[in-house]
Amino acid sequence: MKVGVIGYARSGKTTVFNALTGAHAAVGAFGSRDANVAVLKVPDERLERLAEIHHPKKVTHAEIQFLDVAPNTAAGEDKALDSAALTVLKNVDALVHVVRAFENEDVVHPKDSVDPVRDGRSLDEELQLDDLIIIERRLERLAKEGRKDREYDLIGRCRDHIESGQSLRTLELNPQEQKAIGGYTFLSRKPLLLLGNYGEEGIGQADPAGLDAYAAEAGLAHIDLCAAMEMEVAQLPEDERQAFRDELGLGEASRIRFIRSAYHSLGLISFLTAGEPEVRAWPIVAGTHAVDAAGQIHSDIQRGFIRAEVVAYDDFMAAGSMAKAKEAGHVRLEGKEYEVKDGDIILFRFNV
Ligand SMILES: Nc1nc2c(ncn2[C@@H]2O[C@H](COP(=O)(O)OP(=O)(O)OP(=O)(O)O)[C@@H](O)[C@H]2O)c(=O)[nH]1
Ligand SMILES: [Mg+2]
Predict the structure, then answer these.
(1) Quick check: 234 and 38 in contact, CB under 8 A?
(2) N or C: which end of the chain has fewer CB within 10 A?
(3) Tens of pLDDT along 323-332?
(4) Which domains does the chain have, with CATH numbers?
Protein backbone atom coordinates (compact mmCIF):
# COMPACT_ATOMS: atom_id res chain seq x y z
CA MET A 1 0.00 0.00 0.00
CA LYS A 2 1.46 3.28 -1.14
CA VAL A 3 0.49 6.63 0.34
CA GLY A 4 1.52 9.99 -1.12
CA VAL A 5 1.99 12.92 1.27
CA ILE A 6 0.99 16.18 -0.40
CA GLY A 7 0.22 19.77 0.58
CA TYR A 8 1.20 23.38 -0.01
CA ALA A 9 4.79 24.54 0.37
CA ARG A 10 6.00 24.57 3.99
CA SER A 11 2.80 23.07 5.36
CA GLY A 12 4.91 20.56 7.27
CA LYS A 13 4.84 17.56 4.92
CA THR A 14 8.38 16.49 5.71
CA THR A 15 7.81 17.13 9.41
CA VAL A 16 4.75 14.84 9.30
CA PHE A 17 6.72 12.28 7.35
CA ASN A 18 9.43 12.29 10.02
CA ALA A 19 6.89 12.23 12.85
CA LEU A 20 5.15 9.16 11.48
CA THR A 21 8.14 7.18 10.33
CA GLY A 22 10.81 8.30 12.82
CA ALA A 23 12.94 9.33 9.83
CA HIS A 24 15.34 12.27 9.91
CA ALA A 25 14.70 13.90 6.55
CA ALA A 26 15.73 17.58 6.47
CA VAL A 27 12.80 19.93 7.09
CA GLY A 28 12.65 23.50 5.90
CA ALA A 29 14.92 22.57 2.99
CA PHE A 30 12.77 24.63 0.67
CA GLY A 31 12.76 23.54 -2.90
CA SER A 32 14.89 20.44 -2.54
CA ARG A 33 13.91 18.13 -5.38
CA ASP A 34 14.22 14.89 -3.51
CA ALA A 35 11.24 12.82 -2.55
CA ASN A 36 11.49 11.00 0.79
CA VAL A 37 10.38 7.39 1.05
CA ALA A 38 9.86 5.29 4.15
CA VAL A 39 7.93 2.24 5.24
CA LEU A 40 5.58 2.24 8.19
CA LYS A 41 4.79 -1.03 9.95
CA VAL A 42 1.17 -1.50 10.86
CA PRO A 43 1.10 -2.51 14.53
CA ASP A 44 -0.86 -5.73 15.03
CA GLU A 45 -0.82 -7.53 18.36
CA ARG A 46 -2.30 -10.63 16.78
CA LEU A 47 1.03 -11.29 15.07
CA GLU A 48 2.83 -11.28 18.43
CA ARG A 49 0.32 -13.75 19.89
CA LEU A 50 0.55 -16.03 16.85
CA ALA A 51 4.34 -15.94 17.01
CA GLU A 52 4.21 -17.22 20.59
CA ILE A 53 2.38 -20.28 19.29
CA HIS A 54 4.18 -20.91 15.99
CA HIS A 55 7.72 -19.74 16.87
CA PRO A 56 8.23 -18.63 13.27
CA LYS A 57 11.57 -17.65 11.78
CA LYS A 58 10.06 -14.37 10.74
CA VAL A 59 7.21 -12.04 11.73
CA THR A 60 6.09 -9.64 8.99
CA HIS A 61 3.73 -6.76 9.62
CA ALA A 62 1.52 -5.17 7.00
CA GLU A 63 3.27 -2.14 5.60
CA ILE A 64 2.33 1.30 4.43
CA GLN A 65 4.80 2.83 2.05
CA PHE A 66 5.12 6.55 2.49
CA LEU A 67 6.11 8.96 -0.18
CA ASP A 68 6.84 12.57 0.72
CA VAL A 69 6.45 13.92 -2.80
CA ALA A 70 9.23 16.27 -3.94
CA PRO A 71 8.26 19.94 -3.50
CA ASN A 72 6.65 21.79 -6.34
CA THR A 73 9.21 23.81 -8.25
CA ALA A 74 7.69 23.94 -11.72
CA ALA A 75 4.24 25.38 -11.00
CA GLY A 76 3.58 28.67 -9.19
CA GLU A 77 3.94 28.65 -5.40
CA ASP A 78 0.21 29.00 -4.95
CA LYS A 79 -0.09 25.47 -6.37
CA ALA A 80 0.65 22.42 -4.23
CA LEU A 81 1.41 20.12 -7.15
CA ASP A 82 3.44 20.48 -10.31
CA SER A 83 3.21 18.09 -13.24
CA ALA A 84 6.01 15.87 -11.91
CA ALA A 85 4.11 15.42 -8.65
CA LEU A 86 0.83 14.74 -10.47
CA THR A 87 2.53 11.98 -12.43
CA VAL A 88 4.05 10.39 -9.33
CA LEU A 89 0.67 10.43 -7.60
CA LYS A 90 -0.91 8.31 -10.32
CA ASN A 91 0.86 5.35 -8.74
CA VAL A 92 -0.21 5.76 -5.14
CA ASP A 93 -3.21 4.09 -3.52
CA ALA A 94 -4.14 7.02 -1.32
CA LEU A 95 -3.31 10.63 -0.58
CA VAL A 96 -2.59 12.39 2.68
CA HIS A 97 -3.09 16.13 2.49
CA VAL A 98 -1.04 17.92 5.15
CA VAL A 99 -2.95 21.11 5.87
CA ARG A 100 -1.12 23.88 7.64
CA ALA A 101 -2.96 24.96 10.76
CA PHE A 102 0.04 26.18 12.77
CA GLU A 103 1.05 29.79 13.18
CA ASN A 104 4.74 30.54 12.72
CA GLU A 105 5.94 34.00 11.77
CA ASP A 106 9.20 32.68 10.38
CA VAL A 107 7.48 30.38 7.93
CA VAL A 108 5.57 32.15 5.15
CA HIS A 109 2.45 30.46 3.82
CA PRO A 110 2.48 30.55 -0.01
CA LYS A 111 -1.02 32.05 0.08
CA ASP A 112 0.11 34.53 2.76
CA SER A 113 -2.34 33.45 5.43
CA VAL A 114 -3.17 30.33 7.41
CA ASP A 115 -6.59 29.06 6.34
CA PRO A 116 -6.94 25.26 6.53
CA VAL A 117 -10.39 24.97 4.96
CA ARG A 118 -9.36 27.13 2.00
CA ASP A 119 -6.29 24.90 1.49
CA GLY A 120 -8.40 21.75 1.75
CA ARG A 121 -10.69 23.01 -0.99
CA SER A 122 -8.03 24.42 -3.29
CA LEU A 123 -5.86 21.32 -3.25
CA ASP A 124 -8.88 19.23 -4.12
CA GLU A 125 -9.52 21.62 -7.01
CA GLU A 126 -6.00 20.97 -8.29
CA LEU A 127 -6.72 17.25 -8.35
CA GLN A 128 -10.07 17.83 -10.05
CA LEU A 129 -8.51 20.04 -12.69
CA ASP A 130 -5.94 17.38 -13.56
CA ASP A 131 -8.74 14.84 -13.97
CA LEU A 132 -10.79 17.24 -16.04
CA ILE A 133 -7.95 17.74 -18.53
CA ILE A 134 -7.70 13.98 -19.04
CA ILE A 135 -11.48 13.69 -19.35
CA GLU A 136 -11.82 16.47 -21.94
CA ARG A 137 -9.06 14.95 -24.04
CA ARG A 138 -10.67 11.54 -23.91
CA LEU A 139 -14.12 12.85 -24.75
CA GLU A 140 -12.74 14.71 -27.73
CA ARG A 141 -11.04 11.59 -29.02
CA LEU A 142 -14.11 9.39 -28.51
CA ALA A 143 -16.27 11.96 -30.29
CA LYS A 144 -13.82 12.10 -33.18
CA GLU A 145 -13.96 8.31 -33.48
CA GLY A 146 -17.74 8.51 -33.44
CA ARG A 147 -17.87 6.43 -30.28
CA LYS A 148 -20.73 7.89 -28.29
CA ASP A 149 -20.90 4.66 -26.35
CA ARG A 150 -21.07 3.60 -22.73
CA GLU A 151 -17.58 4.82 -22.00
CA TYR A 152 -18.45 8.21 -23.49
CA ASP A 153 -21.48 8.47 -21.21
CA LEU A 154 -19.53 7.39 -18.15
CA ILE A 155 -16.67 9.81 -18.71
CA GLY A 156 -19.27 12.48 -19.43
CA ARG A 157 -20.80 11.82 -16.03
CA CYS A 158 -17.35 12.21 -14.48
CA ARG A 159 -16.98 15.58 -16.20
CA ASP A 160 -20.39 16.78 -15.02
CA HIS A 161 -19.54 15.75 -11.47
CA ILE A 162 -16.30 17.71 -11.46
CA GLU A 163 -17.94 20.68 -13.13
CA SER A 164 -20.48 20.74 -10.33
CA GLY A 165 -17.51 21.33 -8.01
CA GLN A 166 -17.05 17.86 -6.60
CA SER A 167 -14.26 15.31 -6.57
CA LEU A 168 -14.76 11.97 -8.31
CA ARG A 169 -14.37 10.35 -4.91
CA THR A 170 -18.01 11.18 -4.23
CA LEU A 171 -19.38 10.00 -7.58
CA GLU A 172 -21.42 6.86 -7.07
CA LEU A 173 -20.49 4.13 -9.51
CA ASN A 174 -21.45 0.48 -9.73
CA PRO A 175 -18.65 -2.13 -9.70
CA GLN A 176 -18.59 -2.39 -13.50
CA GLU A 177 -18.28 1.36 -13.90
CA GLN A 178 -15.57 1.48 -11.26
CA LYS A 179 -13.62 -1.07 -13.20
CA ALA A 180 -14.20 0.78 -16.45
CA ILE A 181 -12.66 4.03 -15.17
CA GLY A 182 -9.91 2.30 -13.14
CA GLY A 183 -7.39 2.67 -15.93
CA TYR A 184 -7.64 6.47 -15.87
CA THR A 185 -6.22 6.62 -12.32
CA PHE A 186 -8.15 9.81 -11.62
CA LEU A 187 -6.50 11.64 -8.74
CA SER A 188 -9.68 13.16 -7.31
CA ARG A 189 -11.05 9.63 -6.96
CA LYS A 190 -8.22 8.41 -4.74
CA PRO A 191 -9.04 8.18 -1.04
CA LEU A 192 -7.79 11.28 0.71
CA LEU A 193 -7.00 11.75 4.36
CA LEU A 194 -6.90 15.32 5.65
CA LEU A 195 -4.18 15.82 8.20
CA GLY A 196 -4.44 19.08 10.13
CA ASN A 197 -0.97 20.14 11.23
CA TYR A 198 -1.47 22.21 14.37
CA GLY A 199 0.94 24.17 16.48
CA GLU A 200 1.23 23.67 20.26
CA GLU A 201 -1.64 26.08 20.82
CA GLY A 202 -4.00 23.65 19.10
CA ILE A 203 -3.40 20.72 21.45
CA GLY A 204 -6.49 19.70 23.36
CA GLN A 205 -8.76 22.12 21.50
CA ALA A 206 -11.77 20.85 19.62
CA ASP A 207 -11.52 21.55 15.89
CA PRO A 208 -10.15 25.12 16.12
CA ALA A 209 -9.73 25.46 12.35
CA GLY A 210 -13.08 24.03 11.29
CA LEU A 211 -11.43 21.12 9.51
CA ASP A 212 -13.80 18.59 11.04
CA ALA A 213 -16.80 20.29 9.53
CA TYR A 214 -15.10 20.63 6.16
CA ALA A 215 -14.03 16.97 6.16
CA ALA A 216 -17.57 15.87 6.95
CA GLU A 217 -19.00 18.01 4.15
CA ALA A 218 -16.43 16.73 1.62
CA GLY A 219 -16.71 13.12 2.79
CA LEU A 220 -13.08 12.89 3.84
CA ALA A 221 -11.30 11.17 6.70
CA HIS A 222 -9.55 13.58 9.00
CA ILE A 223 -6.98 13.56 11.81
CA ASP A 224 -5.10 16.28 13.67
CA LEU A 225 -1.46 16.21 14.62
CA CYS A 226 1.04 18.55 16.10
CA ALA A 227 3.72 17.43 13.71
CA ALA A 228 6.66 19.48 14.96
CA MET A 229 6.26 18.11 18.49
CA GLU A 230 5.45 14.64 17.25
CA MET A 231 8.63 14.66 15.22
CA GLU A 232 10.68 15.46 18.30
CA VAL A 233 9.01 12.70 20.26
CA ALA A 234 9.47 10.19 17.43
CA GLN A 235 13.18 10.83 17.52
CA LEU A 236 13.49 10.06 21.27
CA PRO A 237 14.49 6.60 22.48
CA GLU A 238 11.39 4.39 22.45
CA ASP A 239 11.13 3.93 26.24
CA GLU A 240 11.00 7.69 26.84
CA ARG A 241 8.35 8.53 24.29
CA GLN A 242 5.12 7.81 26.13
CA ALA A 243 6.13 9.73 29.29
CA PHE A 244 6.92 12.69 27.07
CA ARG A 245 3.62 12.38 25.22
CA ASP A 246 1.70 12.32 28.51
CA GLU A 247 3.52 15.38 29.76
CA LEU A 248 2.72 17.33 26.57
CA GLY A 249 -0.88 16.14 26.42
CA LEU A 250 -0.32 14.51 23.03
CA GLY A 251 -2.29 11.34 23.83
CA GLU A 252 -1.93 8.16 21.86
CA ALA A 253 1.02 7.86 19.50
CA SER A 254 0.26 9.70 16.27
CA ARG A 255 1.61 6.83 14.26
CA ILE A 256 -1.08 4.54 15.63
CA ARG A 257 -3.87 7.10 15.18
CA PHE A 258 -2.65 7.73 11.67
CA ILE A 259 -2.54 4.08 10.69
CA ARG A 260 -6.01 3.49 12.08
CA SER A 261 -7.41 6.43 10.06
CA ALA A 262 -5.52 5.37 6.95
CA TYR A 263 -6.84 1.82 7.23
CA HIS A 264 -10.32 3.11 7.86
CA SER A 265 -10.39 5.69 5.07
CA LEU A 266 -8.98 3.19 2.60
CA GLY A 267 -11.38 0.46 3.67
CA LEU A 268 -8.46 -1.83 4.46
CA ILE A 269 -8.45 -4.97 6.58
CA SER A 270 -5.72 -7.53 7.24
CA PHE A 271 -5.79 -11.27 6.80
CA LEU A 272 -3.12 -13.42 8.42
CA THR A 273 -0.94 -16.33 7.46
CA ALA A 274 0.70 -18.33 10.21
CA GLY A 275 3.21 -21.14 10.11
CA GLU A 276 6.72 -22.04 11.02
CA PRO A 277 8.56 -20.04 8.40
CA GLU A 278 6.54 -16.87 8.84
CA VAL A 279 3.67 -15.21 10.66
CA ARG A 280 2.38 -12.36 8.55
CA ALA A 281 -0.37 -9.79 8.08
CA TRP A 282 -1.55 -8.89 4.57
CA PRO A 283 -3.50 -5.70 3.88
CA ILE A 284 -6.46 -6.03 1.51
CA VAL A 285 -9.50 -3.94 0.69
CA ALA A 286 -12.59 -5.10 2.60
CA GLY A 287 -14.77 -7.23 0.34
CA THR A 288 -11.84 -8.89 -1.43
CA HIS A 289 -12.56 -12.46 -2.51
CA ALA A 290 -10.37 -15.34 -1.36
CA VAL A 291 -8.91 -15.91 -4.81
CA ASP A 292 -7.78 -12.29 -5.06
CA ALA A 293 -6.41 -12.32 -1.52
CA ALA A 294 -4.33 -15.32 -2.60
CA GLY A 295 -2.91 -13.18 -5.37
CA GLN A 296 -1.49 -10.81 -2.77
CA ILE A 297 0.82 -13.60 -1.68
CA HIS A 298 1.73 -14.93 -5.11
CA SER A 299 0.19 -14.95 -8.56
CA ASP A 300 0.72 -18.75 -8.72
CA ILE A 301 -1.46 -19.25 -5.66
CA GLN A 302 -4.17 -17.17 -7.28
CA ARG A 303 -3.89 -18.96 -10.60
CA GLY A 304 -3.87 -22.46 -9.10
CA PHE A 305 -6.36 -21.68 -6.32
CA ILE A 306 -8.21 -24.77 -5.08
CA ARG A 307 -9.63 -23.64 -1.76
CA ALA A 308 -8.88 -21.66 1.35
CA GLU A 309 -8.73 -23.16 4.83
CA VAL A 310 -9.95 -20.38 7.06
CA VAL A 311 -10.14 -19.94 10.82
CA ALA A 312 -11.02 -16.68 12.55
CA TYR A 313 -8.21 -15.37 14.74
CA ASP A 314 -10.36 -15.39 17.92
CA ASP A 315 -11.50 -18.99 17.31
CA PHE A 316 -7.94 -20.09 16.73
CA MET A 317 -6.70 -18.44 19.93
CA ALA A 318 -9.55 -19.93 21.95
CA ALA A 319 -8.70 -23.40 20.64
CA GLY A 320 -4.94 -22.95 21.10
CA SER A 321 -3.80 -24.93 18.08
CA MET A 322 -4.86 -25.70 14.54
CA ALA A 323 -5.62 -29.34 15.45
CA LYS A 324 -7.93 -28.27 18.27
CA ALA A 325 -9.55 -25.58 16.12
CA LYS A 326 -10.30 -28.29 13.55
CA GLU A 327 -11.72 -30.59 16.23
CA ALA A 328 -14.00 -27.81 17.38
CA GLY A 329 -15.20 -27.32 13.80
CA HIS A 330 -13.82 -23.79 13.50
CA VAL A 331 -11.73 -24.41 10.39
CA ARG A 332 -13.80 -23.84 7.26
CA LEU A 333 -13.09 -24.70 3.66
CA GLU A 334 -13.93 -21.74 1.48
CA GLY A 335 -14.03 -21.26 -2.28
CA LYS A 336 -12.84 -18.54 -4.61
CA GLU A 337 -15.74 -16.20 -3.98
CA TYR A 338 -15.44 -16.20 -0.19
CA GLU A 339 -15.25 -12.65 1.16
CA VAL A 340 -12.18 -12.50 3.38
CA LYS A 341 -12.71 -11.01 6.86
CA ASP A 342 -10.32 -9.03 9.04
CA GLY A 343 -8.27 -11.43 11.16
CA ASP A 344 -8.96 -14.53 9.06
CA ILE A 345 -6.03 -16.92 9.35
CA ILE A 346 -5.81 -18.52 5.93
CA LEU A 347 -3.99 -21.44 4.39
CA PHE A 348 -4.41 -21.50 0.63
CA ARG A 349 -4.48 -24.86 -1.17
CA PHE A 350 -3.36 -24.49 -4.75
CA ASN A 351 -1.99 -26.42 -7.69
CA VAL A 352 -0.04 -25.04 -10.63
N1 LIG B 1 5.62 26.17 14.74
C2 LIG B 1 5.51 25.11 13.95
N3 LIG B 1 6.32 25.04 12.88
C4 LIG B 1 6.20 23.95 12.08
C5 LIG B 1 5.24 22.92 12.31
N6 LIG B 1 5.36 22.00 11.35
C7 LIG B 1 6.34 22.43 10.53
N8 LIG B 1 6.85 23.62 10.95
C9 LIG B 1 7.96 24.40 10.34
O10 LIG B 1 7.57 24.76 9.03
C11 LIG B 1 8.70 24.68 8.14
C12 LIG B 1 8.37 23.80 6.97
O13 LIG B 1 8.24 22.44 7.43
P14 LIG B 1 8.51 21.22 6.44
O15 LIG B 1 8.18 19.99 7.18
O16 LIG B 1 9.84 21.33 5.83
O17 LIG B 1 7.38 21.54 5.38
P18 LIG B 1 7.21 20.91 3.93
O19 LIG B 1 5.75 20.95 3.64
O20 LIG B 1 7.89 19.61 3.83
O21 LIG B 1 7.93 22.03 3.05
P22 LIG B 1 8.43 21.89 1.50
O23 LIG B 1 8.88 20.49 1.31
O24 LIG B 1 9.52 22.91 1.38
O25 LIG B 1 7.21 22.26 0.71
C26 LIG B 1 9.86 24.17 8.98
O27 LIG B 1 10.64 25.29 9.34
C28 LIG B 1 9.17 23.54 10.17
O29 LIG B 1 10.01 23.59 11.32
C30 LIG B 1 4.41 23.04 13.48
O31 LIG B 1 3.57 22.18 13.77
N32 LIG B 1 4.59 24.16 14.25
MG1 LIG C 1 9.37 18.91 2.46
Answers:
(1) no
(2) C
(3) 999 999 999 9
(4) 2-113+190-265 (3.40.50.300), 287-350 (3.10.20.30)
